[in-house]
Amino acid sequence: MCEPAMPPRPSSSTRGSEPLQQKPPSLMQSLCCCCNVNEVMEEVQMTAAAINKPPPVSLEPGHANEEGEARGMAAPKWGCVEIVNKNKEGEIIAVLAAQNASELVFDERDPNGYVNSYLRANGCMPEQTVVHGSFDDGVEVLQFALFYGCKYKTIEKARAGEIRNNFEFLKVYEARCRGKNVLLKYKAGDLEPQKVSSGLSVFGKKTSVGGGIDMKTNIECLTLIRS
Questions:
Q1: CA-CA distance, 151 to 168, in Å (whole number)?
Q2: Which stretch of DSSP H or E encloses residue 205?
Q3: I need a surface site. Which of 49, 60, 69, 165 has the fewest CB within 10 A?
């Protein structure tokens, strides 16, 4: 006679009357999870807020007030931006002027794609060139992102592709500009406020080269805030 078959042994995963319970997450794991979620939510909110920030200053070739000076018009006492690349060794730079330039270039919160489009539109500057723009009366602070150490020798290559990647170095400066003009020059890796050349004056007023703007209206301090 055949002996009755023995029932199968319960496996280690099915022994006992209760199923195995997963170990609950530790307090540290729970805190890390909450922190990650909070960080993601904060970044989403800040990026969404960046959508409504004002666009950068639109830069055009030439000195501020150049046309007005030619017509004999008085220069504005505030609201002008002028940037001169004083370098004489073929160095190409790129400058972005915006109220939130640091956020745009360092934090890369740029949902509107401002950085590339504004750098391509006259933000890239060969040696011995000047650009200008304007800002509204209510603007308290402007930031200036300076890209330098260009990897290329031609402006065409410097403006190609993702422009920020065409430069080795990046700095952001800040200027309190309400009721002022912001006239800057680039020399040897730095932006600094323009200073009048000795002996250059119009009716006793020291003026910026090319635009006839009274240098008394220029900012006095440009502060490096990130590099």
A1: 7
A2: strand 205-206
A3: 165
Rounded distance, CA 193 to CA 180, Å? 12
Tell me the two tokens of residue 188.
């040897």
Q: Are strands 182-187 and 80-85 parallel, antiparallel or unpaired?
A: parallel
> Splitting the chain (227 residues) into consecutive groups of 10 residues, what average pLDDT does each group show?
54 51 63 63 63 93 91 91 93 98 96 96 96 96 98 96 97 97 96 74 62 91 97
Burial (CB count <10 Å: 0-12, 13-18, 19+), residue 66: middle
Tokens 């270039």, residue located:
105
Domain boundaries, the chain: 24-53, 55-226
- Could you tell me if 168 and 151 are in contact, meaning their C-beta atoms sit under 8 angstroms apart? yes
Q: What are phi and psi of 216, to 5 degrees?
A: -65, -20
Q: Taking the model in full, what pTM does it have? A: 0.78
Category of 69 on φ-ψ map: left (φ > 0), alpha (ψ -120 to 50) or beta:
alpha
